[in-house]
Amino acid sequence: MIKIYGSSLCPDCIQCLENLKRRNISYEFIDIHENMANLKAFLRLRDTNPAFDEIKRNGYVGIPAIVMEDGEIELDWEKKYGL
Fold first, then answer.
1. What is the pTM of this model?
2. Distance between CA atoms of residues 31 and 21, nearest Å
């Protein structure tokens, strides 16, 4: 099952989740604002994975971050799961 790191405060995250639901794609949503453990898990991922390098250089957070079952990280949800 894919994991989505995001925030219930993020419009892009909400849209991503709605698109996944419409397509009946199973996922686990990890809300980084829900608790400190979720935030730390996301920051560890973001700080150690080169998939986030350009995002960080441009001053973005990097959510929604889709972690595929094989560990690949997709940051362009519209490309992957858009309309």
1. 0.90
2. 16
Domain span at 33: 2-81
Q: Is 73 within 8 Å of 49 (Cβ atoms)?
A: yes
Q: What CATH number is attached to the domain comprising 24?
A: 3.40.30.10
pLDDT recorded at residue 82: 64
Tell me if residue 31 falls in helix, strand or coil: strand
- The confidence score (pLDDT) of residue 77 equals 82
The encoded tokens of residue 61 equal 């957070």
Q: What is the pLDDT of residue 45?
A: 97
How many domains, the chain?
1
Q: What is the CA radius of gyration of the chain?
A: 12
Q: What does residue 49 show for φ and ψ, rounded to 5 degrees?
A: -105, 125
Q: Is the per-residue pLDDT at 51 higher than 90?
A: yes
